[in-house]
Amino acid sequence: MTNKLVIILGSVREGRFGPVVGSWLAEQARAHGGFEVEVVDLADVELPLALPAAPPKLAGAEYPRPAGMAALTAALESADAFLVVTPEYNHSYPASLKAAIDWHFTQWTAKPVAFASYGGLAGGRHAVLHLENVLTELHAVTIRDGLVFPNYFHTWQDGQPLDADAPTRAKVVLDQLAWWADALRVAREKAPYPG
Ligand SMILES: Cc1cc2nc3c(=O)[nH]c(=O)nc-3n(C[C@H](O)[C@H](O)[C@H](O)COP(=O)(O)O)c2cc1C
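Structure tokens predicted for NAD(P)H-dependent FMN reductase:
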């Protein structure tokens, strides 16, 4: 059975670089062959900051989400694995990504998440450290290896990273994600996650 990989573009900023990284990753993921790939761009999603009264964990399927969030919710629900593409804003990840996470709960549970980050000198690593922390709270399984693109403004050209090893590094992350996606899908099918 083919696992579904959902690539989430976390940046919604005007003039953002995120879609360049996201397109390249989607290309790598499709070439990898281990996944059905869907790209979700948070810029296309209605993401209010004001949440409903009940937490999504308790409200379950009845959680009252806006109509413009339905495609995101369906994508997260159907995913067997996630690849989150994030920039670094003030040593963390963008508010758009936090809103997308907080509007959901079970959709993340017992599923693997890998990260691709970009930024200045730290390559977005501060954002990823925070995301690992937050997603663990939702019972997601974060992958140790990730793709880091420091000083992306000097290290990408024509939609591609200049580093010749980047496709090899992407394959390593995708292989690990595929391994976890298989393992956790089988486990979820066998018994509901006790969390
Ligand atoms: C509000 C804001 C804060 C930023 N803070 C950081 C930072 O802490 N570290 C960093 O490496 N880059 C930082 N940057 C620069 C971003 O890495 C750069 O703008 C990048 O293009 C953001 O990704 P995006 O274009 O997809 O939105 C910041 C940019 C913005 C807009």
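Helices lie at 18-32, 56-59, 70-78, 95-102, 125-137, 152-155, 166-190.
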